[in-house]
Amino acid sequence: MKKSLLLFVAMVTGMVANAQYENAKQVFSSPKLQEAVKTHKLVAILPFEVKMTYKKQPRDFDIETNREKEREKAYSIQSSIYTFLLRKASKYTVEFQDVEKTNVLLKKAGMTDKLGDFTKDEIAKALNVDAVIAGKFEAEQSKSEAGAIVTTVLFGGMGSKTGSGALTMMVNDGPTGDLLWRFFKSMNDDVFSSSDELIDRMMRKVSRNFPYSK
């Protein structure tokens, strides 16, 4: 009985801590934001910078395979943000460049997989847009998917988190490259999470502060 009570208390404590972590967010708006966004008509969404790590590295871990997963996630998040914004296009004051066109233009400019080597105004010029949306996704896997499934079955969904992550989203002015807006959101990542789900969760928080909302 005592062991069961301690287990229950530990699980509830963990759920409370996870909820607090999930709610953590930070928003920055530049004094130049309001004037700058009035001049923006077309905005590009860049592939996100992705970093995926493990609390306990898997036995079959391969650095090249992990890098490929990070690259796939970078484009997956880019696509998910574009899809989300496209669904609600009437609510925004700007248009968003098709991500396929963005990626083709980045390739032609020799910027693919090397965005960190260029300034945001250089990227915006190559894409012929008024502003760029960029960001970073960092995730640490703390439990295997198999382990999370077992926990879900045993405890009905409690404690099925496989890891934690943080999403940072930024808007930079095209002509100047200046950072106009930054949103940071920490979140838990479970076994069923996809890029679409992660972005939906983030954008629900972003919507109140998103600089292009009407």
From TrEMBL:
It comes from the Bacteria. Gene3D superfamilies: ABC-type transport auxiliary lipoprotein component. Residues 1-19 form the signal peptide. It comes from Pedobacter caeni. Keywords: Signal. The keyword Signal applies. This is DUF4136 domain-containing protein.
